[in-house]
């Protein structure tokens, strides 16, 4: 393996198809425009083959090297990551519909500074490109010491059930797909900042397929997804399948953002003093359940 210092952006990103280093080029603008169409229509854009095939192999090797640091958890939860019955809602309400989530996360403090996954996450050219796709001025690497750079692991038999994100958007790279199952599904814009959309959510939780999209993601595909208002899941990985590995790159609109204590503990099994300090000063941006 080459020294970490030798990793360049061109070693990782298909700069012919996605010239993130030349934002004034016609190819760059075309890629951004295509992503914007999907994000405007359904809150989702898939940039196929963004990561070079040989780089995908390298990213997967880094995940495998750090898999021992994965925090696995199994919870029966509702789409809002709550685990307790709420007597203020009917028993068949989405708030009281609980499905098992079983998966793992490699935390941010397991990654070496300068490894290929870290270089890709922290490349300012990539952050600028994603910001342009989202039609915002700038993005900053999430400062959360555990949730900034992570990898989601779904081993055979595991699933990440229907849920909403607390952040406005997520950026992921599929590194290793499952042989069976492990598909990303979502119901676009099923709720809004001022409408919880409980009836539509209940229909999906009951097995309804109206409005549900299934993505056929391939290794190296970069996905930009607005998961705050779109219900989504990763379906159960087959019992005889290989694991599903995805790199998760978290960005924020402002620098210095730290994640919420409750969600951090659910996903990583621990919190750090930085999380507790940030929680004392947190202000919510909306009134959604979560």
> Assembly state here?
single chain
Main structural class:
alpha+beta
Helix content: 25-40%
Order of helices and strands: HHEHEEHHEEEEEHEEEEEHH
Summarize the structure in words.
This protein is of the alpha+beta class and 290 residues long. It has one domain (14-280): Jelly Rolls (Sandwich), CATH 2.60.120.620. It contains eight helices and 13 strands. The chain has helices spanning 9-12, 26-42, 53-65, 116-122, 124-134, 198-205, 261-268, 273-280; strands spanning 44-47, 71-77, 99-106, 140-141, 149-154, 160-163, 170-176, 184-187, 213-215, 222-225, 231-234, 244-249, 251-252. The strands form three sheets. It has a seven-stranded antiparallel β-sheet with strand order 1-10-7-12-5-3-2. α2 packs across α5 (124-134). The termini are far apart.
SSE layout and pairings?
Layout: H1 9-12, H2 26-42, E1 44-47, H3 53-65, E2 71-77, E3 99-106, H4 116-122, H5 124-134, E4 140-141, E5 149-154, E6 160-163, E7 170-176, E8 184-187, H6 198-205, E9 213-215, E10 222-225, E11 231-234, E12 244-249, E13 251-252, H7 261-268, H8 273-280
Antiparallel strand pairs: 1-10, 2-3, 3-5, 4-13, 5-12, 6-11, 7-10, 7-12, 8-9, 8-11
Helix pairs in contact: 2-5
Question: Which features does this protein show?
Answer:
single chain, 290 residues, alpha+beta, Jelly Rolls, 7-stranded antiparallel sheet, 4-stranded antiparallel sheet, 8 helices, 13 strands, globular
In brief, what are we looking at here?
This protein is an alpha+beta fold and 290 residues long. It has eight helices and 13 strands.
